[in-house]
Amino acid sequence: MAAAAEGQGPAGPGGPRGAAEADADGMGLTDLPGELLELILCCDVLGAADIGRVSCTCRRLREACQPRGKVWRERFRLRWPSLLKYYSHTDGVSWLEEYKARHNAGLEAQRIVASFSKRFFSEHVPCDGFSDIETLGCPSHFFEDELMCILNMEGRKGLTWKYYAKKILYFLRQQNILKNLKEYLQRPTDRQSFLEGAVLIDQYCNPLSDICLKSVQAQVDDITDKVRKVLRTKNPRHPSLASKAGEVVIPEVELQRQVLDAMNCVLYEQLKYKGNELDYYNSLNSYIHQVLIRRTGIPISLSVLYLTIARQLGVKLEPVNFPSHFLLRWCQGKEGSTDIFDYTYIDAFGKGKQLTVKECEYLIGHHVTEEFYGVVTSKEVLQRMVGNLLNLGKRESTDQSYQLLRDSLDLYLAMYPDNVQHLMLQARLYFHLGIWPEKVLDILQHIQALDPSQHGAVGYLVQHTLEHIERRKEEVGPEVKHRSDEKHKEVCFSIGLIMKHKRYGYNCVIYGWDPACMMGHEWIRNMNVHSLPHGPHQPFYNVLVEDGSCRYAAQENLEYNSEPREIPHPDIGRYFSEFTGIHYLANTELEIRYPEDLELTRATVQKIYSSGKE
């Protein structure tokens, strides 16, 4: 990280003065040729502090270490190699100033990340929690680079820093992607690439992944080149071979058919692309970069890929928002014809099979009206892609944060900001999660202005949201649980221990406990707690489970895990700062709430696992 001191380097006895002094033969550093001097000063064992001291020694070395020169550029490259991509023209860049700016951005990033645990331990980061990040006085890519440095720290330490760095980076990148999406939607429709739209959706739902239009386009271009090779063997004079991508439109139907045949050969025979029938409802099928990696997808994602390649080879296919199964259409008659029988319909999910109108109806098992065979815009294609993700987000059972549902709602409302149905769904979701009550009120106010008939549902949510805000104001700080209290004497396990559930077999880590079950009567009844020998009158533990869920487990159902291992839970860093290899160490905020658990955990671990090795 930027705050960590760099290697002090071999300045030698006497500090920087020794750098310019002559050796026993009378040859000093300043007597060396310029190129050799630069080579020495660019050595990776020297740190920024060394270069700063050397440049203060004499005029010759000051000139060698000038801010815009090779030495500081190399220092910047060695320290932050991933940032050089932001400098298309390096002439005139003050690398010393860039180094200072990146260093200061790193310090600021660390300060903000460190503050998040204390500020937001008891709640989700609120909407205005990122306000100080949005007003940063440094380049955003410097700030993001430091966050990536934190996330890429090796080892099992710094878990809390990584947890909040990830949240901040997630927010920053999504904000930038939303801005790009809105700019995309404002363009004329003929400048809205279907592939770019698919990439924007992919990026928003996977903001921490390295996804960019350039790399996705390069992979599509590679497939297109393979199609050209096949096409060349069939027709060496085909017009699409003599032009660059997208520069020609082939009018002859037979020449177009040759392109589509070559595409089917490459995509489905050589590269083995196929529709994912076995795991259709996996969200990865909707992300274009995953479609290219896994070579499988759903009808709409495979159609975007198919359409893009065809258009690059001069065949103008069009998207068709067919119910239950997205299709493409290929004109066989007069261009722009409104007769649905002038088109052949292509099923990219079904290995590029070409269908008649009647066969399209067989595909979904019922008759549809002509309007469903019409072409749709890029915005409508994105709407359907996001709608698929929305439905998947509603189905998610293990992700208790409903991240996919939240992301897809953001995307949908970016395209249709006044859609009352989705605004209400967003308000209900935030209300259910107990997060961002102020934003819930803003959404409800917007809904009421758009559709006054919603006043009943809006009024109910407003009332309960205001009650939530009032309860939050009344909170007087964290509850501290001392094990020495008489009422806690039956609590056997402590924070940070890796446990196993006796009945269900899952591995988990304890992050909280109560001396008795604190859930309501309905939960106790639904979970059949009274069937346990000790019922609800025994300690219960909050645990993070390896499947990503959070559960509330009875003491009699838990046992020490004989083979403790890391628990891959997304919230692990919210509560713990380090995994020792046997147990977790509570972070500062959790330790405040359970001040006597750390020593007990260490004693328990030493007793259980050291005795097992003897």
UniProtKB/TrEMBL annotation:
Residues 1-25 are annotated as: Disordered. Pfam families: F-box-like, Transglut_core2, YccV-like. Residues 490-587 form the Hemimethylated DNA-binding domain. Gene3D superfamilies: Hemimethylated DNA-binding domain. GO terms for molecular function: DNA binding. InterPro entries: F-box-like_dom_sf (IPR036047), F-box_dom (IPR001810), Hemimethylated_DNA-bd_dom (IPR011722), Hemimethylated_DNA-bd_sf (IPR036623), SirB1_N (IPR032698). Coiled coil: none annotated. This is F-box protein 21. It comes from Calidris pygmaea. The lineage of its organism: Eukaryota, Metazoa, Chordata, Craniata, Vertebrata.
